[in-house]
Amino acid sequence: MRHISNKPVIYWLRRDLRLHDNPALVAAHETNSPVILAFLWNETEEGPLAAGGATKYWLHFALRELDNAVQREYSNRIVFRKAADSQKEILSLVSETGAGSVVMNNLYEPCLKARDDKISASLQLKGVEVKRFDSYLLHAPDSVNTESIGMRGIGSVTHFMECCRQSSKDSIGFPVDKPSVLPTSVSMPHSQSLGELDLARLPQRRDGTIIDWAKVIRESWDFSEDGAWNALDLFVNGGIRNYEKESGRSDMPNTSRISPYLHFGQVSPRSVLRHAQGLRSPKFLRKLAWRDLSYWLLSKFPEIPSKPMRVHYQKQRWSQSKAHLKAWQKGNTGYPLVDAAMRQLWLTGWMNNYMRHVVASFLISYLHLHWEHGYAWFQDTLLDADVAINAMMWQNGGMSGLDQWNFVMHPVDAALTCDPKGDYVRQWCPEFSALPDDFVHKPWKCPPSILRRAGVEIGKNYPHRIITDLEEAREQSLRDVVTIRLANPQFVDPHTGNDLVPLPSGLLLPVITRKEFKYKTAHPQAKDNPHTAVLRGYRSRKRDEAIAFANQVDFTASTVNECALRHKRYEESGRFVDL
């Protein structure tokens, strides 16, 4: 253990729970002063829905692992404080320790940035030096502007990447090594125990027994910084080979599973970028650009977690069915692919990006439930729940974002692409373990005899479909959007048919609009839909023929069996007549 008598430096930990490539930690080390690592927990300041049950649970174990690493490598430790007010707590720490400087890595949510700006100003007024660093994103929001290429195309990741190229003055650089030493202070400030932060507290029943909803999460994840690198190495040495063409496969490990680690800063995006460069997967690297884009949009439109960016969509018609919402949340919709994904989310806190699109499309385009319900549920159940990313994705999926994606995932046909043999569905819906491949994604088409042999009872051990006419549900979704657009012509460009979004300056900006919406707005009475956004997946005529044949065989067998039973009844009743 090494003590130094200089004024300590306080390193305020937030979402940067790592030792490698951590500029604030390196800056603390370079002061040649005692380093006090402090983590303050104030759930209120995080903002509504910023800290869901799953993220808090992960945070508890990530902090435990980091604290163990700091003790093991530096004989130092993290000071934990549950703070009613972060500003007062930081000032108190400075007073207790006599610290001469505070270092931190920036956060970019508008409310947190405003808080940090206020705290920094108050510290500087007291003569305390403050140093802040950018490490959570590749491009900080205030470093990107649209002056060179304009606003048209805003919301598109391609447009954003070009903005980054045109406006970024500093190179991304390369990851920095972890510090060699972090000297301790002669007198460390008081620290609460990690458990006192109540991040991982599990609910209790009335009889005192614990409801361990996080058991599978604990068994499924390594919460350490090493866990982040192991997940990344596993991906670059295996899954990345199939990522470009088959990242949507839910039955194969083709995705990286590093999103929770990125969210809590257990691996830096710069490290991910450098580690994966040269592996010929631009699709994967674009995910980092999407991440930066979400924070840039949040900085420009702070209300996107709660208000449509296309303001005229505020009055769009939505279903109020609580039963449908609960069925979707619990994975009881009667559509196996949707249910498997929602059950995986509930048990493990994660699902891949393709499955997130599947369940979002089903909630919005087929159940007509408001995207805010999906956003709130993801914020509470995802381990990587991120206000900026979730808000952007749910707004886009809910048609009111700046980029109306030109696709809708069909709850059945999407399975032919992502889970062709039904292995994923069987993993999370074990009631289908014995059902043949041809019927696992549409058990309602399965012959009764095959269902019986597989032990599946629709309506008993697996629910009936909560909606049956998917085509009509989709048409209603189209009509709802068209109704809003026709009622608000001032927000529709008469020349291109694109929606118009008001900017803070008051200008109306044309934004990307789905082709089927533009067509239906121009032809509201048309029954055709030449620009349908529904992705049909890789349809298999062979599979459809197999289903038809099985039903025909079952019908024939059932008919023969019914004739035999009738014959037997006549014999037993003595009323059989030999003709």
TrEMBL record:
Residues 7-138 form the Photolyase/cryptochrome alpha/beta domain. The record marks 318, 371, 394 as: Electron transfer via tryptophanyl radical. It comes from Littorina saxatilis. One of its GO terms (molecular function) is deoxyribodipyrimidine photo-lyase activity. FAD binds at residues 243, 255-259, 284, 384-386. Belongs to the DNA photolyase class-1 family. Transmembrane segments: none annotated. Binds 1 FAD per subunit. It comes from the Eukaryota. Keywords: Chromophore, FAD, Flavoprotein. SUPFAM superfamilies: Cryptochrome/photolyase FAD-binding domain, Cryptochrome/photolyase, N-terminal domain. GO terms for cellular component: cytoplasm; nucleus. This is Photolyase/cryptochrome alpha/beta domain-containing protein. GO terms for biological process: circadian regulation of gene expression; entrainment of circadian clock by photoperiod; nucleobase-containing compound metabolic process; response to stress. Its cofactor is FAD. PANTHER family: CRYPTOCHROME, SI:CH1073-390K14.1. InterPro entries: Crypto/Photolyase_FAD-like_sf (IPR036134), Crypto/Photolyase_N_sf (IPR036155), Cryptochr/Photolyase_FAD-bd (IPR005101), Cryptochrome/DNA_photolyase_1 (IPR002081), DNA_photolyase_1_CS_C (IPR018394), DNA_photolyase_N (IPR006050), Rossmann-like_a/b/a_fold (IPR014729). Pfam families: DNA_photolyase, FAD_binding_7.
